[in-house]
Write a structure and sequence with these properties.
The chain has helices spanning about 25-35, 55-80, 95-100, 145-150, 180-195; strands spanning about 1-5, 10-15, 40, 85-95, 110-115, 130-140, 155-165. The chain has about 200 residues and is an alpha/beta fold. The chain is globular.
Length: about 200
């Protein structure tokens, strides 16, 4: 697990995509550490990260070897951090966002931010016990409008849909949208300020 400590009483768990802890995730961890969070980024793969060109292999690896154990691992990390920190937040990208969403009923979590978590659609029955900000791209591999419509009916849940494709926040990826990234980072900061 990567850790970036700032000495504050607020912890942020960053949950990476299927590619692992890559340059984008490292940059994100540093960004939030500089904002004063103690940042924890568990290595969900247990191996070297995948390049973007190996997306099918990364997806298969995650689904075959990681998926079943990861929720308990994150719940355990949240429980441990709650003994040391006043507040614990989750920030997830893609599959990391879906993992964060699956933890939303945990009352020990202070807030969740999920960015383009397409597999959230498989768990729409969950009722968040903490504030949640979900950000989707309007062009993704599922019916975004249908999922967003269902999510809008939930308490504690704020949903934003921005123009772009899956992965639009990652400056190292092919779908990066700089203007949307700036808007999302501002939304995330407002959300965190409200929660803190």
């Amino acid at each position: 697990m990567k850790e970036r400590l700032s000495g504050r009483s607020i912890a942020l768990i960053v949950l990476h995509e299927i590619y692992g802890i890559n340059e984008f995730i490292e940059m994100t961890c540093l960004q939030y550490q500089r904002k004063g969070f103690d940042v924890f980024c568990p290595d969900l793969l247990g191996r070297k990260n995948f390049p973007y060109s190996a997306a099918p292999e990364a997806y298969a690896f995650f689904m075959d070897r990681v998926r079943l154990e990861v929720d308990d691992k994150i719940r355990g990390l949240v429980s441990r951090l709650k003994t040391e920190y006043e507040m614990v937040f989750l920030l997830g990208f893609s599959v990391g966002a879906a993992i964060a969403w699956r933890c939303c009923e945990n009352p020990g979590i202070s807030g969740i931010i999920g960015c383009y978590g397409s597999r959230i659609r498989d768990h729409l029955e969950l009722q968040p016990a903490c504030p949640v900000l979900l950000i989707f791209a309007d062009h993704d591999a599922f019916d975004v409008a249908r999922v967003v419509s269902r999510l809008h009916r939930k308490g504690n849940t704020e949903v934003r849909v921005l123009k772009g494709e899956h992965g639009f926040l990652d400056p190292f990826g092919r779908h990066y949208e700089s203007e949307q990234a700036i808007a999302v980072n501002a939304s995330i900061q407002r959300f965190l300020n409200r929660c803190i």
